[in-house]
Design a protein that fits this description.
Elements (H helix, E strand, L loop, with lengths): L2 H26 L5 H9 L4 H8 L2 H18 L7 H10 L8 H26 L3 H50 L4 H11 L3 H14 L4 H12 L2 H16 L3 H48 L7
């Protein structure tokens, strides 16, 4: 009964140590600029081989091995809701280059770590069998569902960023189109000058059109990746204007005005929610302190 907790603790400490070493090495490593990489590769007679050998050990060995292990674990996970998870990954912008198999591997790994830690805690304290089953099952479920919660937070943050920057992007599109540029050229210029989610989506639309996809398909893919109603309505209006031969400049003018109005209305809505949000801390935190300060000295000391 004493060997199992010791083995579990040793395994947990070794795993955490490897994770901390990887985290530290990846954080200290300096990123190479594209110009430096191009000069290094063109100056070498065997650029691909030397480029691979000059890469850090974590990029050459550890990261591919870790990705392979996660994918092997991910193939063992149940495929229920896989399309929803894939859509969430797309709308989150594929953080850290994760695929659907990597995500399921992380879910299984989290369940194993959480279940192992829970088993170590309950076995070392001598809990009954029912308590062991309940506690280990609960923490295993939490470890399995925690990546979904994290992914949902990433999706929400990216959608809020797109919703916030879309009016400015439409203003820039309108200016570029009024200056004589086409819609694709205007999107490409925004993707080159800005560094946010909507600029990335515009750049992806241009890239998809360059590889042979139609404008309709590229814009519909952008609406799917964004998952924001404002982007979906903007894409629908652009597709209708393209179908009926309307002026893109006039459509962009109208859409930019509507987006600015929606942003102003959203700001007013959030400002009206502030008094309700302040009610809880005011009643339960500030008011007792004020009562203690004002009424406290008048209370007789027995």
């Amino acid at each position: 009964m004493t060997v199992l907790p010791f083995a579990l603790s040793v395994g947990l400490l070794v795993t955490v140590s490897f994770g901390l070493v990887y985290w530290g090495v990846s954080g200290v490593r300096r990123a190479e600029s594209p110009r430096q990489r191009l000069e290094r590769l063109t100056a070498s007679p065997h650029p691909l081989e030397e480029g691979e050998l000059d890469a850090p050990f974590t990029d050459r060995v550890f990261k591919p091995w870790l990705r392979h292990q996660l994918q092997r674990l991910g193939r063992l996970a149940p495929t229920y809701g896989i399309e929803k998870q894939r859509l969430n990954l797309i709308q989150a912008g594929h953080p850290y280059g994760l695929t659907i198999v990597d995500l399921f591997g992380i879910k299984l790994l989290g369940a194993l770590f959480a279940g192992g830690g829970a088993l170590y805690m309950v076995v070392s304290r001598g809990v009954s069998l029912v308590g062991v089953v309940l506690f280990v099952g609960l923490l295993t479920a939490v470890g399995f569902l925690a990546p979904d919660f994290w992914l949902g937070l990433r999706v929400g943050r990216r959608q809020r960023e797109i919703r916030r920057t879309l009016p400015d992007a439409l203003d820039m599109l309108t200016i570029c189109v009024d200056a004589g540029a086409g819609l694709a050229s205007a999107m490409l210029k925004i993707s080159q000058r800005w560094d946010n989610a909507i600029a990335f989506e515009f750049g992806k639309v241009v890239a998809e059109m360059n590889i042979g996809m139609t404008r309709r398909e590229s814009l519909q893919n952008m609406a799917l990746r964004a998952g924001v109603p404002e982007v979906q309505s903007f894409v629908a209006v652009l597709l209708q204007a393209d179908q009926f031969g309307l002026s893109i400049a006039k459509v962009l003018h109208t859409q930019s005005e509507q987006m600015r109005t929606r942003r102003w209305q959203r700001a007013e809505e959030e400002s009206r929610k502030v008094p309700i949000k302040m009610l809880f801390p005011l009643v339960f935190l500030l008011l007792p302190a004020m009562l203690g300060i004002t009424v406290g000295p008048a209370v007789p000391i027995l």
